[in-house]
Amino acid sequence: MKVDVLNMQGEKVKQVELPAAIFEAPINVDLMHQAYVRQMANARLGTHKTKTRNEVAGGGRKPWRQKGTGRARQGSTRAAQWKGGGRVHTPQPRSYVQQMPRKMRQAALRSALTVKASEAGVVVVDSVTLPEPKTRLMAEALGKLVGNASALVLLPEKDSDYEVVARSTNNIPDAKVLLAGYLNIRDLLGYDKIILPLKTLDVLVANLG
Predict the structure, then answer these.
(1) What is the distance between the alpha carbons of residues 33 and 156, in angstroms, rounded to a whole number?
(2) In the beta sheet, which residues pair with residue 6?
(3) Per residue in 93-139, pLDDT tens?
(4) Which residues lie below 8 Å from residue 40, measured CB to CB, with a gap of 6+?
(5) Could you tell me if 63 and 77 are in contact, meaning their C-beta atoms sit under 8 angstroms apart?
(6) Which long-range contacts (CB under 8 A, 24 or more apart) does 94-98 make?
(7) What DSSP state is assigned to residue 32?
(8) What domains, with CATH codes, occur in the chain?
(9) Strand locations in 113-188, DSSP E?
């Protein structure tokens, strides 16, 4: 698949062939869904907690004698039916981590990249650089590259250009800068356009090809 290579002004400078193994891979919707659910589950802290009847304070004394009062027998005022009592069958700390083999995660990313490419959602640029960290400069560049669409900017490595571009993008609500090595299914599916510098293609080939 051949696509145009743009500069930061949105002008075509040349064409490049996208790697077929990554951008023309079989589309597996179920695999993408599994990878997305796994990522969202693994992001959960699992620190929810409620107190059971043996953890709440008070209730040491039997409220009334067992027989002869005409009332139901009670052993503690900290039982679940009492105000201020413990809770039954409520959340306790747990891990939501789901396992997924690396090759399956890679296949899910290739499927998502193929979907983006088929929908013209991949924008290849020669490089993403700014003379200084200014939100205005990055917003203008994104406007020329993707218009009003949300954008995920994938950079090849963490260098001086990365720091400038990341700082310039922080205050733009519909844009995010991410290292290509940290590419994930949630970000891929969460943005309309993927901006790929030419050097990022080499990183993707090394990680997914």
Answers:
(1) 26
(2) 12, 125
(3) 999 999 999 999 999 999 999 999 999 999 999 989 999 999 999 99
(4) 186
(5) yes
(6) 94/46, 95/46, 96/41, 96/42, 96/44, 96/46, 97/41, 97/42, 98/37, 98/38, 98/41, 98/42
(7) H
(8) 2-39+96-208 (3.40.1370.10), 50-90 (no CATH)
(9) 122-125, 151-155, 175-179
